Amino acid sequence: MQKNRLAPVLLISLLVMIDQAVKIIISRWFFDRCFGLVGDMLQFSPVHNTALSWVNSSLNLGIGFIPHLLLNAFLVVIVVLI
User: Fold this and answer.
1) Mean pLDDT within 38-59
2) Cα(23)–Cα(17) distance, rounded to whole angstroms?
3) How many Å apart are CA 55 and CA 33, to the nearest integer?
4) Each residue of 23-39: pLDDT tens digit?
5) Distance of alpha carbon 72 from alpha carbon 68, whole angstroms
6) How many CB atoms sit inside 10 A of residue 71's CB?
């Protein structure tokens, strides 16, 4: 891998690891907490997303696992091709 292409890959990998570490910390020690960060406008209130994605959950699309997996695979191919 070329040097100029290695830096973004390492940065993205680091950000993914930080994201996963934050999720593990919240899940283990702060999942039962709920508090306001900016009054009633912004609150910390963790929930488990059982609908496979934020879009599927917030729009109540009801997309199942296999269609969701196929859609994500399609989007990954499109992003890679672009």
Assistant:
1) 83
2) 10
3) 24
4) 999 999 999 989 888 98
5) 6
6) 15
User: Measured between alpha carbons, how far is 50 from 53 in angstroms, rounded to an integer?
Assistant: 8
Q: Residue 28 carries which side chain, given as an amino acid letter?
A: R
Distance CA 23, CA 46 (A): 10
What single letter denotes the amino acid at residue 82?
A: I
Q: Are 68 and 56 in contact (CB under 8 A)?
A: yes
Q: Which two tokens stand for residue 16?
A: 């993914």
| Cβ neighbours for 13, distance < 8 A, ≥ 6 positions apart | none
**Residue 48 is which amino acid?**
H
Does the predicted TM-score (pTM) go above 0.85? no
* Domains of the chain, residue spans: 1-48, 50-82
Quick check: helix, strand or coil at residue 16?
helix
